[in-house]
Amino acid sequence: MSSNKRTADLEISVAPIETPTCEAMRAALVIHPGPGVTCTSTSPGESARGGTYALLNEETTEALLHQHESARSAPGIKCFSSQLPVNTPNEDRCSTHLLSEADLAGLVESAIRGPGGFWRAWDELVDGKKADDELRSSWVMSSVIDGLARGEVADTINRVLHASLAFALGCQENRDDGSIKSIITKVYEQIDQAIISAPQNFLNPNPCTPASTLLPPGCTALLGAAGLLYPSSGAVAATVLLDLTRQRVYVASLGDCRVLLGWKDEHGKWGTKDTGVGHTVKNEKEIELLMKRHQNESRDQLISPINGFIKGMASHTRCFGKPDSKVPPLHDDRNEPYFFHDRSMRALGILLPKIPTQQDLPGAPYILSTPEVACTVLEKKGAKLKFIVLATDGVTDRLSSKEIVHLVAGQLERSAPVSPLTDDNPATGLIRAAIGGGDPRTRQILLSLGAPMGRAMRDDMTVT
C-alpha cells in the first residue's frame, strides 16, 4: 500500500471471545495510541498470533465498501447486491437473474442438444440479456452462497443453481405452490447428491447413484468435479424466487444464510418475517432433529464435547457438499481411505486431519441437504411486501432482524434518513452498518486488518 493511502497509526490489542462451539474466534478491540496497527491474539492451547498492518484512510475504506456492488431492475422491483470480502479469495458468492417464460422454454429446448447446447444457451441468456428484456421478466431469482472451508464448491453451486432451477421450472407444465416448493427442494438435494457421490462413483465402475433427471445436462459432472477435488469443502445458501405473474415469493434456506421479508401495513407500520432457523449446532431444534434420526447414538456421540461439532467435524446441520463428513470414504486397491486430493497433499508433506472411517460415521449421513422452503404472497391482510434481504452470516451475526428492517425501512421512507444507511445502494448500507455502523474509525481499523487477524474479527459479507 502506498504511503498516501495511510493515516495516523494505532496500536490494537485483541482479546478473544470464546464461543460454545469454538468456531472462528471473534475478538474485542482495545485501541491505544502507538506505532503501527498491531494485533495480537491468543486462544486456548495456541501461541500468540497477529501482525502489523497499514491503517487505510477513509477514501480507501469507502472504495472497498463500494467495490463489489451492483444493481438490476425488473417490473416494479429493484435488485441491489454488495460484497465485502475478508478471505483471500472471497468465499461468498451471490447472483441475481431475471427471466421470462420464453427464457425457461428456450432452456428446456436447448437441453435436447446436450450439455454444450444447454450451457451455451444459459451463458448467452445471462450475458446477453439487455435492460429492456429484463423489464419483461416474469421470474426473479436471487441467491447468496457462503463457502465452507474454501470457495470452490460455492463457486460451482453459484454456476449451476439458478440454471438448474430455471430448467426444472421450464420442465414443469402445471405450476402451483406445492410443485414449485418441491422443485426447489429437489434441486437443492440433487445438487448435493451429485457432489457427495462423486468420490464413490469415481472408484466404483458401476455407480449406484442414478443420474439426476431434474438437473440440466452436464450439471452432475460439474458438481462431481467439485466433490472430487474438494471433499472437505461445502457451502450454505439462501435463494429467493419471485413469481411476478402469480405474485408469489418462494424462499429457501440451507445452513445459516438468512432471508428477511420486510412488510408495511395499511397503517404505515413495518414488520418482518425472518425465514430460516439457522441450521447449525447452535440451534437446539436442529440438534433434537439430529438425535431423532440417530436414536442409537447419545448426544455426546453425535455432538463432540471437545469442539461442539457434529462428529467433531461440522458445525452446520444442513449444507451442500462436504462429502468427507457426510459419508465414509471407499478404500482404494491398497486399502487406504480415498479422497481425490489427499494423496497429492501427503506427497507434499502436508498433514491432514484424521480421515473419517465407517466407525466414525456408522449412521451417515448426519448432515442433510434439505432446505427449509416457504411461500407467501406479495400482499396480504392489508400489508405489502416492500423488500427482501438475503445475507450471509458475516452480516447477520452483527445485525439483528429488527436492526435490518429499521435500516432498510428508513432508507425506503427517505423522510427521515437512518444513519448509517445513507448509501444509494441499500445492500452496501447494510454492510456499512454491520462493520462499524456510524463509527468510521472502527470501520477503518477493521478493513485495515489482513489475514489472519481480519478473519478473526469478521467474516466475508454479502447482501442482496
Gist of the model:
This protein is α+β, with helices and mostly antiparallel strands. The chain is 34% helix and 23% strand.
* Beta-strand segment tally: 17
Low-confidence stretches: 1-36, 40-49, 331-354
Helix content: 25-40%
Radius of gyration, in Å, reads 23 Å
- Termini, distance in Å? 30 Å
**Silhouette:** globular
Name the beta content range. 15-25%
Oligomer: single chain
The helix-and-strand class reads: alpha+beta
Count of discrete alpha- or pi-helical segments spanning 4 or more residues: 17
User: Which sheet architecture does the biggest sheet show?
Assistant: 6 strands, antiparallel
Mean pLDDT: 79
Keywords:
single chain; 464 residues; alpha+beta; six-stranded antiparallel sheet; four-stranded antiparallel sheet; 17 strands; 34% helix
Describe the structure.
The protein is α+β, with helices and mostly antiparallel strands. The protein has a domain at 3-55. The chain contains 17 helices and 17 strands. The protein has helices at 58-66, 101-110, 114-128, 131-134, 152-171, 177-196, 198-203, 219-229, 284-293, 299-302, 323-326, 342-347, 393-396, 401-413, 426-434, 440-448, 453-457; strands at residues 10-17, 26-33, 37-41, 49-53, 70-74, 77-84, 92-99, 139-148, 234-243, 248-254, 258-264, 270-275, 320-321, 372-377, 379-380, 383-391, 461-463. Strands 7, 8, 9, 10, 13 and 14 form a 6-stranded antiparallel β-sheet that branches. Strands 12-11-16-15 form a 4-stranded antiparallel β-sheet. A 3-stranded antiparallel β-sheet has the order 5-6-17. Strand 5 (70-74) and strand 6 (77-84) form a beta hairpin. Helix 2 (101-110) packs antiparallel against helix 3 (114-128), helix 2 (101-110) crosses helix 5 and helix 5 runs antiparallel to helix 8 (219-229). The longest helix has 20 residues, at 152-171. The two termini are 30 Å apart.
